[in-house]
Amino acid sequence: MSGSINDTHTRTLTRSCKVLLDHTAGTRDRSFLRVDVGKASYCCPVQTSSYHVLTILYPVSTTQYPSSSLLHSSIPNTSRSVSTVNTPVEETFNTLKMKLDRLGRVSRSDLVRAVGRLEPHRDQLSDGQCCWLMELAVRVARGEFRPCGKLLNRIWQLTLSRPNAQVTLEHIELYLEACQLTETPCTLKEMTEVLERHDLEVSGRVLGLLLAVAADMEAATAILAAMKERGVPASHDTFAQLLRVYASSGDESGVESVEEAMRSVKMERTSSTFAALTTGHAQAGHIAAVEQTIDQASRVGVAFSQGQLAKVLFTLAKAGHAGNNFANLEWVIKLLVQNDARQAEVELSHLALKLIHCGRPREAFHLVHHLPSLRTNTHLYTNATLYVQEAVRAHTDPEIVIEVCHGLEEEDISQFGVLVALETALRESRVQLAWTLLQALKERGVELREHYFWPLFHSAAGDTQTLLEVVKRMLDLGVSAGVETLRDHLLPELPSTSTNPSLVCRQLHNLGLAPNATATPMLATLIRKNAFDAAAKFVADTKTSFSLAELTPTLASAWPSSPRVITTLLATLITRHFQSEQRGSDQTQDTKKEDWGGQFLLDMAASRRGLGVTQINPLFQELNKNKIGVSELSLELVSERSNLAIQEALRSSSGLVLDPALGSPPLEKEYNILPHPRKMSVEELGDHLVELDAKGLNQRGTIRRLILSQATTANTTSPPPTTSNISAKPVMPTTTPAAPAPASTSTSEVILGLAHRASGEGMKLSPGMISSVLKAQINSRDLDAATDTLTELHALHPTFHLDHYKVIDLCTLMIDKGQGTEAVKTLRQHLLVEVKNGTRDATKTYPKQIRRNCRNLLVASALTGDYSQTRDLLDLLLTRGLVTPDTLIMGALVKCRLASGDLAGAVTETEEIVEQHKCLPMAVETLINLIHSCGDDGRENKEGEAWTLVQHMVDIIASHSSTSHAHHTLLFACLEGNRPIFAARIFKNLVGKLNRQRIRRQVERYGQTQQTLPLLHLLAASSSPHAALNVTSRQHIYSTLLEIYAVQGEVDKGLALWTQLQEEDLPPSPAFLSSLSDLLTAHGRAVPFQIK
């Protein structure tokens, strides 16, 4: 010992600072380790069998250590640390040491994280720590299939760039060994500079490793010269590397010279020299030479190892010499399997992963197809998952990803390759690849689900345009955005959700989402963001219905934050819910109302915060103020799920809310996990049918019920008429509401598929089921099949009464297909049969839903221009009481006249309808067509006939309403008919008579229908100094235009409105400036003004 230290301190220090390091055995003597503690130093014996090394926390002089020691002052023992706070360097090495102790390995990601933490503290690293990092890099490179070259260079730069770094030959040898494993180039010149900088002499091992990484003949020649100059003897490895370099360069004479040199020194050719030569030929693409070398080695009794054959296979694939249909790889794979089939699978799997990250995915998946273990579990989702995931992580071209996934399906390896690729692309934020894969799934008929698109929403958080584009593409792929998608994933990411929820809803509606589909998730999002004032305003402004079932859990969770506002919202929603139910029902039912107050109470008890004892009385008082009752059943359910304190509080305060007239909470039925098939939803019936089919049980009852359930929602929905075959006057805006959307084609296809399945099962369809099939065929617009089904229904069940909905929709389809005469005949026969069978009740009032179907029928007939046909249909419907004469129904006759070009007939028809039925249909549309028949500047083109008709039409409107009403209607017709000159004249004549309230209502209508042209004409017509519109009215027009541009994303047009306001010296309203600011911000544009 060169210093003195007492035995007790030695034992304590040895016990507390000992670290086990697993490293490769070296040639130096590691039986003693010299440790310096301050100025004292001593030597400690080290067990060479387990290689224990002491590590201490005191200042250490690392320069006096032998270079063979791996850690000189680095990793403190994590179990008993002398220091209370570790530095970032110590913490990093502690983490790596812990992973080695517990897992026996360190992964590439572990090492990447460690290097990232160490780089800012490189001045605190010791030489031993850098040497240990390099050893870990060698370990990782041996077993890692991902590229490690960048990681190796970072560790090497970390080693060289430290202040006062003392790089040793061990550092350099480890670095060169890692370069060989990662195929990272390194030249003699670079190493010479490092050696000279640190006063080191090049060793034979360094030169040998440099030769192993030599990229070409020039580099190899320079290294050979250095070896000769220093007297380094040639070894098998030297000759092997020379053979590799010469063969890869295509220098056959060089190969022969090396072989001659080996023979001259009587050096036997081994598997390493044969393998190096074969690898060189593979690199050059000399397939014949590769086969010849392997055959020559076999003849002399030299066998290639599995690793050597794998190296040849990898080189062929990576260099692009796989051959046609991968023929050059096949025979090497065959050799691998012949040597050792089990080890061959391991090698092929590793090579496939490496090739994926080398940019050779096709070659990689060709190797995957040879893995026998993948053929035993082809039904598993995880089969071949790793290879598909790595193909995505390696940024493989999307078309190649789809190609290799389809290859896995064709080879019966995995049927879920594209789904796995999509999952990985979404996780790795590969957006473009994800869209390509979604399109590929759609084209292959795979059902796309909503949650596939959730990561796409989160990846575009805050970007309004990108988020709306995701919604649009989602809808284009046939996937509808449900409540969960909008509430949890889209709306929270839109920046305008809290500030302008109505604008966001209009934007989504403009993309194709129904208004009632966005209202509920928007309200839930506002509540979750604690934007209670905005939520209350949104409910007041929104006319569509809300889903209480989706909102009560959200309201319950937010109640403690704002009890009064939440309770008021709940009361408003419950009232609107019951009003909606009353409007939708035909007659009053003697049933108890649903207990939504009790459901709110149950949701509050089940929320994360729970229902506290102190909350019960304030909650019940708020419910009482808002007249929200709770049923006895709900109170019992909450009591059963609560503790004694809450039960007592419920009993003492229950009188405030208890309402015996209420029924059960509506969502409690969801707790029934296995409902009876009569109570199952469509989705549950579908799952039940799959279960019965798998068990081989009778499916007839379930099929029958599923057909009826699928058809129930579509029975009263009428497909809109098509106008593709109609030639009429220019299409004008119509006041007739748009026809409802048809039932989804997928539902019709399901019904038809179930009917076909029922026929295959030998089932006899009931008349109700046949009528459901008929409705599905109508929705699918298959007229021939629907006609056959109707004939079959009448033949098999002559007494069955088919409802009016289906017959009217069938007649509408007939008219669309050009069979108007058959439509009239079919409707007349149906109504006559109804009278003959005695099913017609003269006092019966038909529900409003049937009028919508009748209106669609009349519109379809009117668009054909056949007046007699339209009149016959209308008379039939009026006679049987299916419709009543109102503006919409009688408008079909006027529309028919306009479609046929009979303007005089349209005016006459309007006059007769006003006299007989006291209603005024299609006044604006008629005036638009009449004005279009006049000249642009007011000159008649039909000798005054057109203007005479205009004046007559105005007189008809005046007789029905008033002269002022007629003039305003003519004004609106000029605005919508693109006649601004006429509109300006009328506006001038209305000075002192202008009805500003009606103008405001019309402006709001234009805003709802997004008609910008009439609004622009209105601004132009009212710009005269004598115009009757005041500042407030013009500001309202500008604000309405801005709202339309905001929904359409027209930023430049919105800015133009602001400029036009300034030119008119018209002060913009605060709401206008706020909306324009939101529009500019959402599209990343600068806001050129400040809002006070």
In short:
The chain has 1092 residues and is mainly α.
Q: Would you give an account of this structure?
A:
This protein is mostly helical. The chain contains 53 helices and four strands. α35 runs antiparallel to α36. The longest helix is centred in the middle third of the chain and has 22 residues, at about 565-585. It is elongated and about 125 Å long. InterPro entries: LRP130, PPR_rpt, TPR-like_helical_dom_sf.
Amino- and carboxy-terminal Cα gap:
83 Å
| Secondary-structure class | mainly alpha
Largest sheet: 2 strands, antiparallel
Summarize the amount of helix as a percent range.
55-70%
Low-pLDDT residue intervals, each spanning 5 or more residues:
1-83, 714-745, 838-843
If helices are DSSP runs of H or I spanning 4 or more residues, what is the number of helices? 53
User: Strand content of the residues, in percent?
Assistant: under 5%
Order of the strands making up the biggest sheet: 1-4
Gross morphology is elongated
| Count of DSSP strands | 4
Radius of gyration: 42 Å
Residue-averaged pLDDT: 80
GO molecular function, one term: mRNA 3'-UTR binding
Region (Disordered): 709-745
Biased composition (Low complexity): 733-745
Protein name: Leucine-rich PPR motif-containing protein, mitochondrial
